[in-house]
Amino acid sequence: QVQLVESGGGLVQAGGSLRLSCAASGRTFSSCPAGWFRQAPGKEREFVAAITYNGITTYYADSVKGRFTISRDNANNAVFLQMNSLKLEDTAVYYCAVDRALWGVPSIKVSEYDYWGQGTQVTVSS
Description:
By secondary structure, this protein is an all-beta fold. The chain is built from no helices and 11 strands.
């Protein structure tokens, strides 16, 4: 079992930056792929970024590539999302997720992730 708690969301002007953190509990976290997803009002939850269990390989949605960076610190059971050059369309609730498939390849699909945080609101203003 893995429990996830996100933090770091808030209100930021367009062009600004935020860093989201996800604190994880559970012995298997360091062996599992992790990801960030987001959900805007009236829209489906969508993939943002993912990272392999060892942090070596990362994946990004085209909409955030070059602006967002996912990373992890397995020694401290944490995953991060550095968001730069934020746009109005980045406004959403951001969720951290973990796939319990040990050493698996990260997926971009919501259905492939087994553990979810409660989400943190990111609002980008003009």
